[in-house]
Amino acid sequence: MSQIEERNPRRFPSVDEILKTVPALAAVDRFGHQAVVGAVRATLAEARAEKLVLSDSSRIASAAFGRLEIEDRSSLRPVFNLTGTVLHTNLGRALIADVAVDAAVQAMRHAVTLEFDVNGGKRGERDDHMRDLLCELTGAEDATVVNNNAAAVLLVLNTFAKGRDAIVSRGELIEIGGAFRMPEIMSRAGAKLVEVGTTNRTHKKDFAAAIGPKTGLVLKVHTSNYRVEGFTAAVEPSALVALTRKHQVPVVNDLGSGTLIDLKRFGLKHEPTVAEAVAEGADLVTFSGDKLLGGPQAGFIVGRKDLIARLNANPMKRALRVDKIRLSALEATLKLYRDPDRLAQRVPTLRFLARKAVDIRAQAERIAPALAAWLGDRFVVKVIDCSSQIGSGALPLEGMASAGLACGARGSSGSGRALSDLSAALRRLPVPVIGHVADKRLVLDMRCLEDEAGFLSNLKKLDVRSGTDAVA
Ligand SMILES: *Cc1c(COP(=O)(O)O)cnc(C)c1O
Fold this sequence. Notes:
Elements: H1 2-7, H2 15-19, H3 22-31, H4 33-49, H5 57-72, E1 80-81, H6 98-109, E2 116-117, E3 122-123, H7 128-138, E4 142-146, H8 149-161, E5 165-169, E6 175-177, E7 180-181, H9 182-188, E8 192-196, H10 204-210, E9 215-221, H11 237-244, E10 251-256, H12 274-279, E11 284-288, E12 299-303, H13 305-313, H14 316-319, H15 324-336, H16 343-346, H17 348-354, H18 357-375, E13 379-388, E14 400-409, H19 415-427, E15 433-434, E16 436-438, E17 441-445, H20 452-459, H21 465-471
Parallel strand pairs: 1-15, 5-8, 5-9, 9-10, 10-11
Antiparallel strand pairs: 2-3, 4-12, 6-7, 11-12, 13-14, 14-17, 16-17
Helix pairs in contact: 3-4, 3-5, 4-5, 6-15, 7-15
This protein binds pyridoxal-5'-phosphate.
């Protein structure tokens, strides 16, 4: 590089010259001297590698500014989730209720009574903020909170089944995705997996034969993301409890999504609630914070006081605990459940589930003309009926009647390319729009679209032409 400079010193201005230009000064104002010097050098190096001649200092400075702006953009960006999956794990699952967002912001800005009892002036416990609420909402004796439900299951297994047997039905050895596989969690927790029954049928007698002095716990797992249909049999948690009593072995029910209210309220099928699981007699029940509950990521464990005390005494609990930001958001979210009638307005996840197909369709019809206009005559936009799903393993076979916009390429040749170009153009928007492809059309399910005005103004930046021209 330096050789080129020596041979042809006029090809590029010096870094100092470039730093004196207007765009460079603006860049320094925004990103600081060090970052701008770095970006200018990188821009020059790139130009040299490409054997360009860049003699205009301002243009080099502008290029460096652009480079810094791209680097500065958060990689964790807001998107429009029009996939039709309300709790999309890859898109961050539940959106947080406004009061919970406010509570989290307060907690971030201030010192808080995280482990401090203001009344007594003594040390308090992190779990105190949630314990009473969780007990009130689930009917459990005691409760604790950890990082997520995977952590809840890990902590439970490690506490009660380390070096001992954990008995599970073969029909419930689930993989949730993202490397949560029950057998692997078991071995990491130090538990010995004892499988009973068969894939489709497990009976009480199978558990009875497996329980012995080495048993640490019996685990019931909600088969979240699949169903075994046909000739099946499973053992109800209440029957498991009756069976294990005399052995003094705890029954743990991993509910997965774990709703606090009956989903029938929203016209959906009944999903066992946490209170029902507690009432059935499970000694401990675990569930997620950011699935149907509609809060931030967390794992709850509710149940018998003596067992919760043992979980809290496990040093692993310290490694899995949640911070003040999430605790405050969780507390605010749980408080909303004291008023079930207004939940569907206040908790975004439940608001999405409660939306009626006619309303969603009306919204799709309002948006269709604008989308068609922005897409131009290479695509046909149609309002269609479609089916949304809850996601994250809740009621996997239950679709919810919804509506959306289906964008198909006009003419059949090259329609695959056209669709992938369209998907890419939507992802390139300032707020990327994520849909899904079905029947050779890109479908935008409107169920989770609330900011209609924001969506429309975002579309103004849509540039699908270059892509489709390339196809044609
Ligand atoms: C989702 C799920 C988990 C994992 O919960 P996370 O909160 O994602 O860690 C564990 N068990 C079941 C049955 C689930 O559905």
